[in-house]
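yo, T-cell surface glycoprotein CD4 is done. seq:
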Amino acid sequence: RSEIDRKTKHLKVLDLRLSDAGTYTCESDSYIVSISLHVFQLTISLDGHFLPNEVPELTLMQSSPHSLPDLTITVFASNKNTVRSTLSENNTRQKYILKLKQLEATDSGTWMCHIHSDSPLINQNISFDVKVLGFQNPNLERKYATVDSTVILSWLLNFQKIKWKEDFTGQLNWKQHESATAHELLDFSVTARGEQHETKKSSHFLFEIPESKPEGTIKVKLPKVHFNHSGQYKCELAYKGRYVQSTIELVVMKVSASHVGPLPRGAEMTLTCQVSHPLSSNTHLLWERVNGTQMDIKKSKQHEVKLEVNVSAAGLWKCHLIEDNDRKISLHYPVEETPVWNTYVAIGASIGGSVLALGLACLCIISSIRSQQRRQRRKRMAQARQYLLENKTCQCQR
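structure:
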């Protein structure tokens, strides 16, 4: 593992090891030069391949022909910021074990370990690579949609950005709330060559896998959102028995009215704006009438999922979902009044119906009276015939 440059007389040692530490002496005639070689070996846990929230562990070993110095070790992340580290309790001067901070996906890059000693004077930098496989999405992302709209949910993986050269798999699950049964929507895998394969799993859930999308992106498309499509969409990566996940919470909003159709004069209807999940403290619902006054504005209370407003006149009403003073989604509901002639027709029809009913009642009464009179007349005639018949019989007997 060593070779000598014949011209410069330099000694080159390849694949340096801890056991190579020692004193190297060069003799030329009566001229002797000695050089002490101090060797450091730095290793990182899991071969430098991590998932978010994992804690790297650095091991620094030193070997010297002289007594081992007490070292000061400083670690710098890829952004040049100092990383807080904790020394293990069972450290010796020969072996230092440092635990670093919990990692994030953005921590990937080349890190630096600086080694310092005053006696002997040592200022040595050793670089090492840290690769964190994960999502470029936030840990919990909230997305809002209105009923019947189209929504695309996407998760951006960073494996191409960090040049990950290992296989890993993943899946996408959905459930309406935390305690509900999870439904597996999608399976995917990425090969060491960076090839991505996706397989649709669910058959009862209406969603699509968009064909055109950036590489390293997991996407699902809901072409027509239903109110019960809301819930948690959780994308999970699996690498060597370890897991990391990213969740998108879909909140769906709808509006409805207490009755369908135009609003009759003098009547009142209730408009309801509703969301599928409780809102965060910085989010609320707001009803407003277009071109209305301040009196036509109504705001929901904290964590309220339903907001109602009573309407007694025609107009265009809008419900907004507002997060940090930013309107995320809106739905409108037009309220129309029944035309005046419709009202007159309805009144006329009502009066006409009443008159007709009264006329029919009178006809029935008259018909009943006449029928009774006919029955009485027939009865009197029958009695008269019976009387005449009895008198005739008596005269014949005499």
